[in-house]
Amino acid sequence: MFKKTMLAVVLVLFVLVTLLPPATAQRPTRVPRNPGGIPRLLCDVEGLWGYATFKAKLDAPTLEKLRPVCQKGYDEREALIGKIATGKDSPSWATFRELGETLVREAKAALGEDASGKIQPWFDMREATVNGIPRPSEAGQGRRARPRAIGEHRQTDEASKADDKEDEFEDEPEE
Questions:
Q1: Residue 172, exposed/middle/buried by CB under 10 A (0-12, 13-18, 19+)?
Q2: What is the largest CA-CA distance in the chain?
Q3: pLDDT tens across 89-111, in order?
């Protein structure tokens, strides 16, 4: 009997010693894996530089005017992203959005009217998005109310017009 009681006590102590500490241990604070994802979309320095260089094909002297603006925006954005990564004094998304708007204003001012006209499509594309996601239009395009099923494709305007016509029921003449 004594052996069974002693075995039960040892078994209970073993379970308590091995299982209780991990259950009560404090979890470490998590640092985001990619803290700069959304901020990089809100202040898209790389997109501006890439568009000016490769799409608009601005000449070297004009790009030299743009370089300090992009460098300043990049440095400020990376400093703010560093604050997110440390978890201290995390800036709001509005701060990044304001930084992106400042980047656009300063780029337009530095380039002048001719060069900023060449990269106007990039400015328009940036205005047409919210956090890098296209804004829904008034016609109901944009974000869908439900996710598409596998194999289901977005309908073009012609296809949706054809579907609308199929949905219309004409009154058949009575005989």
A1: exposed
A2: 100
A3: 778 888 888 898 999 999 999 99
